[in-house]
Amino acid sequence: MMKCPSNIIELMHNYLDEEISPQDELILRDHLHECAKCSQHFNDLKKTVAFIQHSSHLVPSDDFTAKVMARLPKEKKTIRLGR
Amino acid sequence: MEQLVKNRIKAIKKGDQNAYAEIVEIYKNKVYQLCYRMLGNRHEAEDVAQEAFIRAYINIHTYNPDMKFSSWLYRIATNLSIDRIRKKKPDFYLDAEVSGTDGLTMYSQLASTEASPEDTLESLELQEIVQKAILKLPEKYRSVIVLKYIEELSLQEISEILDLPVGTVKTRLHRGREALRKQLGHL
């Protein structure tokens, strides 16, 4: 059994943040190639990210803007008449 | 886009309330989405999102134009969502089954897509599992995950919105992802 680099999980996350140096990326790739456990961990992380990114986008009610406008403090509306 | 927003804000500061409707239209989906993912409940998300726009309007004179307007707005919405989470009674908090009713609403929305009912239901179940996993995250991780993956913002923008160093944002993102992996990675 080879030993996993102590910072390998951190490298995975740096990779996911697209903030990994070319040297570190090489270390990560080499290790994932050899280590099934870390490879699984990395795949699970990527899958998790994909699930969250693809969660459906809900939209607010049709009269959302009208409701906000109706709830704004009233007094400033008079200024509009002065334009 | 940013220029349009800047012009609208100038008009609002001069008292043109109608200009604000355009701002609300531009950002309502993003702000609502942010609140929904933080709170996991459509009704509360609608309420908190409206509140965020009203707060932004009332405090528009404190907005510093050096910051992106969207960042300022997201900051208000995130803080209000966190306030709301903290105010929730613990038993209500645990009762995340409210998302059951949300599911029905979501189902009627998804029903218009062309996927077969089985596929729709399957993805609906997955949607709920994902949302529940997000809701289980402590709020400091939840906000970072939502801003990164639902709002698709950069680490730099998230750092600006939450007023945290980029390094802290990264650490929270890493921990949030690990926590989610434990819940979702085996699916």
- Assembly state (oligomeric): heterodimer
- Which CATH-level-2 architecture of the largest domain in chain B? Orthogonal Bundle
- The whole-number mean of residue pLDDT values of chain A reads 89
Gap between N and C termini of chain A, in Å? 78 Å
Q: What general form of chain A does the structure show?
A: elongated
Task: Quote the distance from N terminus to C terminus of chain B.
Answer: 40 Å
Helical content band of chain B: over 70%
Would you identify the CATH H-level superfamily of the largest domain in chain B? Answer: RNA polymerase sigma factor, region 2, helix turn helix motif
Query: What's the order of the H and E elements of chain A?
Result: HHHHH
Helix content of chain A: 55-70%
Low-confidence stretches of chain B: 91-114
| Strand count of chain B | 0
Strand fraction of chain A equals: under 5%
Overall SS class of chain B: mainly alpha
Number of strands of chain A: 0
Question: How would you summarize the topology of this molecule?
Answer:
The complex is a heterodimer of chains A (83) and B (187).
Chain A: H1 8-16, H2 22-34, H3 36-53, H4 64-71, H5 77-81
Helix pairs in contact in A: 1-2, 1-3, 2-3
Chain B: H1 2-13, H2 18-39, H3 42-58, H4 69-87, H5 90-94, H6 99-110, H7 117-136, H8 139-150, H9 155-162, H10 166-184
